[in-house]
Each structure stands twice: as C-alpha cells, then as structure tokens.
Sequence to fold (168 residues):
Amino acid sequence: MLRVIDAVSRVAGTVAGWAYFATALMLGYEVVMRYVFIAPTIWAEELARMLLVWATFGGAAILLHRRQHITITLLTDHLSPRVRQVQEVFVLLFIAGLAAVIVHDGAGIAYDSFHRGRTTGSMLDLPAWWSQASLPVCFALLGLQALVEALRVAIGGAENLPRGSAEH
Fold:
C-alpha cells in the first residue's frame, strides 16, 4: 500500500510538471496572439489558471515524499536523532490532520458549486468546481503521503529523516 501511494504521488508530480509546461505554452501563445496579432484568446488565461491550481496542489505529495518542501532547520538540526524523529513524526501527522480538514471543507465547497451550477463568470465560463475539486483530491493524496512518511520515519528511524540544510 505504501508503494501504491508513492507511485500515485509520483504520477501526480509528473502530471503537475507537464501542467506547468502546458501553462507556459498557453500563456506564451496568449502573449503572441494578444500583442503580435491583436487577437487575444478567451481560453488561455483561464485554462492556465486552472492548470496552475491543479499543478501546485497536485505536486505537493511528491515534494513531501522527496522532502523538498521549504523547511527551517535552525532548531531541528541541533536535536538528537531520537528527538528529531519524534518531531518529524509529529510534523507529518500534523500535515495529515490539516490535509483532512482541507479535504473535508474543500469537498463541501466543490460539491456546493457543482450542486448550484456555479461557474467562473468569465468569457469561457467554466464550472467553478473544476478548480475547487483540486483541494479535496490533491490534499487527500498529500494527507496519505504524510501518513506514509510518518510511518516510515517512526519505523525506520534516522535514515528516513530529511537531510540537513539545503543547498543555496
């Protein structure tokens, strides 16, 4: 089960990376169309915004797995390995708990928009829940990955702790 969650996180991270690439292409196309051909699109900005939302939240789980989120290690670098292990498990469980709250509340928001038929109100007028669904979907994966990492750190000890300070 742990490997399945890792694999889903990797896939989500890969999709997120390609979504950023597609966003760059769409916005580049929009700039050329708007300022060179004076023919702006009605779709590029809104679809790019939606992709950015999904990509940002969708890539969070793989970043957690790889321990690539921004961390401040001023204090934790000076903890003993055992205390650091406990601290890391606590942080990962806190992330999982916070993700559960976001999944619960985000699902309610997306469902309400779906039920009421809310749209973005733009020229493209996409259903609002398409972007809002990113919260429960992506944070569910983040929460599961946080639980997996907490289990790894609790069982595996120091070798599963994040490394020291980042490269500058």
Remarks:
- The radius of gyration is 19 Å.
- The helical segments are 2-35, 44-58, 60-66, 81-116, 129-132, 134-156.
- The longest helix spans residues 81-116.
